[in-house]
């Protein structure tokens, strides 16, 4: 299948582009009334995510409505722990909850390494439908959580500001922690390979909780597992990989040495400094999502400043984290148009 708009993929591979490509983390869902209508029809987030036709529909919405240069498959990072044997609930406004958790070796022995083709077939089916329906208009991004971020949810059982239960385990029981991280890693490698086989054109690893670790802990409990994933994918495919480790400003140099093509940045990470620390890779980010609450003039100023500092090559415009649910879609559209109109 030949892509009509492959700007995003060319930028990811470090090839020359005519203009900067743009998409938004968490663009599928949350901000669009059209998403909320489909979610209403589905009845719940989980029903929506596990019904391939509906998941495909909301994946394509931002391409049609917002004009982004890439689609991201509608799913969640928490489908992996579910596939390993820990079901979750998505409580409206409160976020995910795991009724069962894993905090010791006995509980770990009860969970399995997920088999993507059988346990996550609904995501793979959604990818196949999206690829068919997009018909080459833009590339499709697959994704998974980084092992450490998944570990946080599996041990804590819900969201947290500090994830102190998860962090306590790293100190108190490193052997258990490594064993759980390895099981998650093995599941994730199988899952991302399956997403690529199903048609994903690039895969992104979200380490959303990277920033709660010290540099030493990050080096011990997160980075080696992300490295395993990048290496395993590089061995079997040429599909580019993006690593986004929110808050891990201290690890940029090491992340830049992974076998990935793109490094995602949050808004605390300076563009020029990041270019120095991460040579030879494409950078993605990093507008503060709160800029989209500002007026149009301010948005234009901030976005232009961002584009000027990153430059037009080896760069993918995005936010520094997911778009906030109460953002005005018109402001999102304005962000996208401003990027598309930019010339150096
Ligand atoms: C940490 C994390 C999660 N999920 C995800 C992350 C990593 C990225 C990040 O740091 O934001 C990733 C994710 N979750 C979702 C996507 C879909 C694709 C996209 O648009 O980017 C992606 C890429 C859908 C979703 N995942 C969720 C929703 C909202 C559920 C609903 O519709 O009620 C959507 C559209 C729920 C979810 N899922 C998660 C939480 C904490 C919550 C509740 C709060 C929230 O809305 O963010 C876990």
Automatic annotation (TrEMBL):
Keywords, in A-Z order: Cytoplasm, Decarboxylase, Lyase, Porphyrin biosynthesis
Positions of the record's site feature: Transition state stabilizer: 76
InterPro entries referenced in this protein's UniProt entry, alphabetically: UROD/MetE-like_sf, Uroporphyrinogen_deCO2ase_HemE, Uroporphyrinogen_deCOase
Gene Ontology BP term (one): protoporphyrinogen IX biosynthetic process
Top-level taxon in the UniProt lineage: Bacteria
Cellular localisation: Cytoplasm
GO (cellular component) term, any one: cytosol
Enzyme class: lyase
Pfam families named among the record's database cross-references: URO-D
Start and end residues of each Uroporphyrinogen decarboxylase (URO-D) domain: 21-30, 141-157
Record's keyword annotation contains Amino-acid biosynthesis: no
UniProt-recorded Gene Ontology molecular function terms: uroporphyrinogen decarboxylase activity
Family: Belongs to the uroporphyrinogen decarboxylase family.
Its job: Catalyzes the decarboxylation of four acetate groups of uroporphyrinogen-III to yield coproporphyrinogen-III.
Protein name per UniProt: Uroporphyrinogen decarboxylase
Organism, scientific name: Larkinella punicea
Gene: hemE
């Amino acid at each position: 299948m030949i892509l009509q708009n492959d700007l995003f993929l060319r930028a990811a591979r470090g090839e020359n582009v005519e203009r900067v490509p743009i998409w938004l983390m968490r663009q599928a869902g949350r901000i669009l009334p059209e998403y909320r209508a489909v979610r209403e029809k589905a009845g719940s987030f989980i029903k929506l995510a596990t019904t391939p036709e509906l998941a495909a529909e909301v994946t394509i919405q931002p391409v049609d409505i917002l004009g982004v240069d890439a689609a991201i498959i509608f799913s969640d990072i928490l489908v992996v722990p579910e596939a390993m044997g820990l079901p979750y609930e998505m409580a409206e406004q409160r976020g995910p909850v795991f009724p069962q958790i894993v905090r010791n070796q006995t509980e770990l022995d009860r969970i399995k390494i997920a088999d993507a083709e059988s346990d996550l077939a609904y995501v793979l089916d959604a990818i196949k439908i999206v690829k068919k329906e997009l018909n080459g208009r833009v590339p499709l991004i697959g994704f998974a959580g980084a092992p450490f971020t998944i570990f946080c949810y599996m041990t804590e059982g819900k969201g947290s500001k500090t994830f102190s239960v998860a962090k306590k385990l790293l100190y108190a029981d490193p052997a258990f922690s490594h064993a759980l991280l390895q099981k998650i890693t093995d599941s994730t490698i199988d899952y991302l390979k399956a997403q690529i086989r199903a048609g994903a054109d690039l895969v992104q690893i979200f380490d959303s909780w990277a920033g709660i670790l010290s540099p030493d802990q990050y080096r011990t409990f997160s980075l080696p597992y992300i490295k395993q994933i990048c290496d395993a994918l590089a061995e079997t495919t040429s599909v580019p990989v993006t690593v986004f480790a929110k808050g891990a400003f201290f690890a940029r140099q090491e992340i830049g040495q992974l076998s990935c093509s793109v490094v995602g940045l949050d808004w605390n990470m300076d563009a020029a400094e990041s270019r120095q620390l991460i040579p030879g890779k494409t950078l993605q980010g990093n507008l503060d999502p709160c800029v989209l609450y500002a007026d149009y003039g301010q948005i234009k100023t901030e976005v232009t400043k961002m584009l000027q500092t990153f430059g037009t090559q080896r760069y993918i415009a995005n936010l520094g984290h997911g778009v906030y649910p109460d953002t005005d879609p018109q402001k999102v559209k304005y962000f996208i148009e401003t990027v598309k109109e930019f010339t150096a």
